[in-house]
Design the sequence.
């Protein structure tokens, strides 16, 4: 992990309320799929955690939804050439074994972004089946990246594009045909809970990337603690954000 001052290359709207920010680092930085960065936004003491979507040596892209003041300032104040303070790479990331050849990725909302990095990392060596959920047609983005896999099903809550329903429902309609060796997922907690119920008893290793409010992002403040099913706690920033689905209380 290091703290760097990066240079913004591009920061643009790519879908309704969604921005894509690409910055350049001075040295190439290795980032594993599922790892995240903490972005320092001018005027805010706490950095904002955002998953890495693409990492290409010195070029790193993150995508973010306009949520509160921090992400809105990020969108309005950081244009090409601006400097931005970044802590990276953070967290454990996804890990798929050599034997796990068929990989299902199930994402919803901003949870699709770390999964884009997983699709990019594994598209050449694995068969990727992607089930990605959006609010509506206007929210769909990064489709060209998600199409790198063997199959892509886009789901929308209102049916304005693709499958009408959630990405978990779309996945469960295909699970017996696809027979995934492993599932990687990220999205809002109700979505992950639905996935946990749906895959329960099927004996498929399933890894979820969690979103928790964060302070430091490096394991020091315990703001991001989550409950484990064994009664203990874990730090989402340092021990996660990726956990085996049976390990965490959702
Ligand atoms: C590991 C990780 C990866 C993430 N990846 C992405 C991503 O790829 N794209 C994306 O759009 N969002 C992502 N998020 C959520 C993102 O961090 C929040 O939407 C963002 O911090 C909101 O900041 P704000 O100032 O606009 O909102 P405010 O609500 O004003 O934020 C107030 C405080 O709460 C924290 N906060 C608010 N919502 C969240 C949240 N959902 N998760 C964590 N902290 C939050 C903020 O960081 C800030 O410290 C991720 C969160 C985590 C933990
Ligand atoms: S955010 Fe400080 S320990 Fe995780």
Sequence:
């Amino acid at each position: 992990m290091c703290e760097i001052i990066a240079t913004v290359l591009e920061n643009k709207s790519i879908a309704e309320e969604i921005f894509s920010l690409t910055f350049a680092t001075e040295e190439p930085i290795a980032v594993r799929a599922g790892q995240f960065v903490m972005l320092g936004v001018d005027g805010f003491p706490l950095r904002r955690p955002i998953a890495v979507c693409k990492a290409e040596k010195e070029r790193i892209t993150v995508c973010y939804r306009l949520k509160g003041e921090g992400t809105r300032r990020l969108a309005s104040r950081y244009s090409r050439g601006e400097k931005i303070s970044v802590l990276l790479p953070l967290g454990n990331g996804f890990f798929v074994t050599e034997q796990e050849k068929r990989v299902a990725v199930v994402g919803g909302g901003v949870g699709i972004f770390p999964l884009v990095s997983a699709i990019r990392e594994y598209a050449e060596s694995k068969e990727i089946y992607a089930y990605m959920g959006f609010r509506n047609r206007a929210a769909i983005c990064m489709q060209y990246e998600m199409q790198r896999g063997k199959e892509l099903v886009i789901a929308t809550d209102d049916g304005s594009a693709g499958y009408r329903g959630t990405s978990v429902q779309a996945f469960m309609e295909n699970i017996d045909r696809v027979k995934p060796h492993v599932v990687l997922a990220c999205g809002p907690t109700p979505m992950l809970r639905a996935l946990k119920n749906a895959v329960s008893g099927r004996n498929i290793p399933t890894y979820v990337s969690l979103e928790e409010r964060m302070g430091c992002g490096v394991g020091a403040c315990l703001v991001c603690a989550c409950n484990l099913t064994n009664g203990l706690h874990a730090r989402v920033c340092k021990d996660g954000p990726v956990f085996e689905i049976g390990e965490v209380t959702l």
